[in-house]
């Protein structure tokens, strides 16, 4: 009635026993109610994607509420737990991890902590260059924008990243946050005398790409682009850059920007 395997055991009976063991040790869904950030940080070590994702999302939401919350997370040593998740196989986990760190980097103490190591600047540059996901580009570029606001951070970025072409690629992004963050990085770098030369000497340096940002509907991007243009001309006395500005119809681009701006003020 029952078939047997080569050792004479009953195959059907073995399958029933295996199913019984599996069912006995299987858990139903767990609804975790985490009330303390330290507990959520511990959950970042979990191997189950659902729990890991929920913990990262909850911590990100917690951080957005106040700078005090960010300081609490930093004191709980969250940075060491969150950094490995930016390379996680799950895209949404990567996003929440990068978002959380981007929010935290606006706080000077966290910025200083990340600048203590040579690793972080080059790491987030690689993320920005290699990631195809727009959210990851947004958060990694925001981290670099915050780090490069510090003159030491700008110098480190210039030292560790000899090729600045990626910045000109990213200011053409379809996402306005990515465009804003990258033109801000350019602005931060040209505050450094070496940075001005590196930005201008980049193979993909293009005034027209920057002029295009003057046509943005977002005032913050417009102002950053305008500041980049004025600083490049003011800080660089090389006749080449001034001739290039004239040849690319830079004056016309600025006049058009001012005309549109005045028209908008008149209508409003």
Describe the protein.
There is one protein chain. The chain is mainly alpha-helical and 268 residues long. Helices cover 72% and strands 0% of the residues. It has 17 helices and no strands. It has helices spanning 11-24, 37-43, 49-64, 67-75, 78-82, 91-105, 108-115, 118-130, 134-149, 151-160, 165-170, 176-189, 193-201, 207-213, 219-235, 239-247, 250-267. Helix 2 (37-43) packs antiparallel against helix 3 (49-64). The longest helix has 18 residues, at 250-267. The termini are far apart.
Give the helix tally: 17
The global form is elongated
Order of helices and strands: HHHHHHHHHHHHHHHHH
Roughly how much helix do the residues carry, as a percent range? over 70%
Quick overview of this protein structure:
The protein has 268 residues and is mostly helical. It has 17 helices and no strands.
Topology:
Elements: H1 11-24, H2 37-43, H3 49-64, H4 67-75, H5 78-82, H6 91-105, H7 108-115, H8 118-130, H9 134-149, H10 151-160, H11 165-170, H12 176-189, H13 193-201, H14 207-213, H15 219-235, H16 239-247, H17 250-267
Helix pairs in contact: 2-3, 3-4, 3-6, 6-9, 8-9, 9-10, 9-12, 12-15, 14-15
């Amino acid at each position: 009635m029952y078939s047997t395997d080569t050792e004479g055991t009953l195959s059907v009976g073995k399958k029933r026993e295996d199913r019984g063991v599996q069912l006995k040790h299987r858990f139903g869904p767990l609804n975790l109610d985490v009330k303390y950030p330290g507990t959520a940080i511990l959950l970042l070590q979990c191997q189950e994607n659902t729990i890991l994702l929920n913990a990262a999302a909850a911590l990100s939401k917690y951080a957005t509420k106040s700078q005090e919350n960010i300081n609490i997370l930093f004191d709980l040593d969250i940075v060491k737990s969150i950094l490995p998740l930016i390379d996680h196989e799950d895209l949404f986990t990567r996003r929440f991890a990068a978002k959380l760190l981007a929010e935290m980097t606006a706080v000077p103490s966290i910025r200083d902590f990340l600048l203590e190591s040579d690793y972080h600047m080059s790491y987030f540059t690689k993320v920005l260059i290699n990631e195809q996901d727009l959210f990851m580009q947004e958060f990694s570029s925001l981290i670099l924008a915050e780090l490069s606001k510090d003159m030491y951070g700008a110098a480190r970025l210039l030292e560790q990243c000899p090729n600045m072409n990626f910045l000109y690629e990213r200011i053409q992004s379809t996402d306005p946050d990515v465009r804003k963050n990258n033109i801000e990085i350019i602005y931060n770098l040209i505050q450094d005398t070496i940075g001005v030369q590196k930005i201008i000497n980049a193979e993909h340096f293009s005034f027209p790409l920057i002029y295009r940002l003057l046509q943005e509907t977002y005032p913050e991007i417009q102002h950053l682009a305008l500041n980049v243009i004025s600083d490049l001309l003011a800080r660089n006395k090389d006749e080449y850059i001034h001739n290039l500005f004239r040849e690319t119809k830079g004056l016309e681009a600025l006049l058009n920007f001012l005309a549109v701006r005045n028209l908008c003020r008149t209508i409003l």
